[in-house]
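Hey all, sorry for the wall of text incoming. These are the two entities for the joint prediction.
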Amino acid sequence: MATAETLFRQRGVAKSSIADIAHELGMSPANVFKHFGSKAVLVDAICDRHISRMIERFTPFDEPLPAPDRLARVACKLMEAHLQDLRDNPFFLEMIFVMSDADLPSGRHYEELVQNLFRDLIRQGVESGVYHCSDCAETSRHVAAAFVSVLHPVFLVNSGEEELLQRCAGIAGLVNAALQNPLEK
Amino acid sequence: MATAETLFRQRGVAKSSIADIAHELGMSPANVFKHFGSKAVLVDAICDRHISRMIERFTPFDEPLPAPDRLARVACKLMEAHLQDLRDNPFFLEMIFVMSDADLPSGRHYEELVQNLFRDLIRQGVESGVYHCSDCAETSRHVAAAFVSVLHPVFLVNSGEEELLQRCAGIAGLVNAALQNPLEK
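and here's what came out:
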């Protein structure tokens, strides 16, 4: 995976083959294929590792802030982590585009991790009496979907950071108004 | 534009050149370049025409429904129109991917049209006393951003229709709860 990442970074994903990776490692392509049945599987594994590491940084996030501030803050920090990741690893975006038709498991895994992050934040808000929500798990799926335009790499490339920060704050404002609505069932 | 569309549909966007389009029309490539300075400009013009037509279908949407039902309905109908469009014109998605780095004006124009659609819906809701919102134009930008995961072609391809309908209804539920929050400034 490290060798593949280095090659992807140097040449791009589309121009790096399993044979190239095997050559770098001084082994036969068959040996690489034994572990990763295709380039898609390899890309998926690299994405998944990055994603899990990125989300891990957020799990211990435990500041003594009111739930709405916390949710807005986490969404914004997560977006900034993505921006940093894309700056550090420009080949990431190519991975996502090259593989966009493949519907890789890492994409679903990422969705799940983000949903769980929001679910925990919403639960804490409900427990502290600030949020009103009858099904935190279901609501967190909709909240995660509402943040896609600031958390999906496709949207992070073509927008300026200032515009993204405003959009992220705007969506957080909507989500917080919805979760705090005392009339909401 | 019609000739380009036909070629894009038959061969794909990446494999159709301005020279191919000129050849089909029995004219010189210079003649095509005179009108469309690059393939990106041509793709942009085709996208823009489709987008404008699609949104036009929604402008006269004038059912006597309460604002929240109306907003949910419009979002869902707009999503379904996109799904139909992608089914009828599979080369659309390729256009979007091929051109994703170009940040074409048609993309911004589409954003604006969707924002205006939501802005008018929100204004009607405020006028009828159902929604609370101090800046409808700004709020509509955030609402449009919240719906990106059901209105952007990238997300419409890899998700099942049932999942998309649920997601769209879920986001509409959040947005409606936010806009109806009497505590919201």
